[in-house]
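Sanity check record (used in CI):
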Amino acid sequence: MAEAVAGQIPSAFVSIAKDKLGSAIAEQANLLWNFGGDLEGMKDAERRSVKEKLVQLLMKRLKDVALDISDVLEDYQDTRDQGTAKVQ
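Expected output for Disease resistance N-terminal domain-containing protein:
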């Protein structure tokens, strides 16, 4: 009886080790399998980020130009009002 139990213990250890090793190999294979898709997703995200930053920069520059135009128009209006006041 003791010999039968002693023979089953190494068998149980081998079975557990085999299951854990198989699980680890499957997990690594899955990571490698998905790596290409994950990498492409990261590249796409980086492209979108760069594009969004460029759009934000363009919008900031357009806003600055619009403010400059507004300042020029205000200066023109003030100058015109001063000229009109002198004539009267």
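The chain has a mean pLDDT of 85. If this sentence no longer matches the regenerated tokens, the check is flagged for review.
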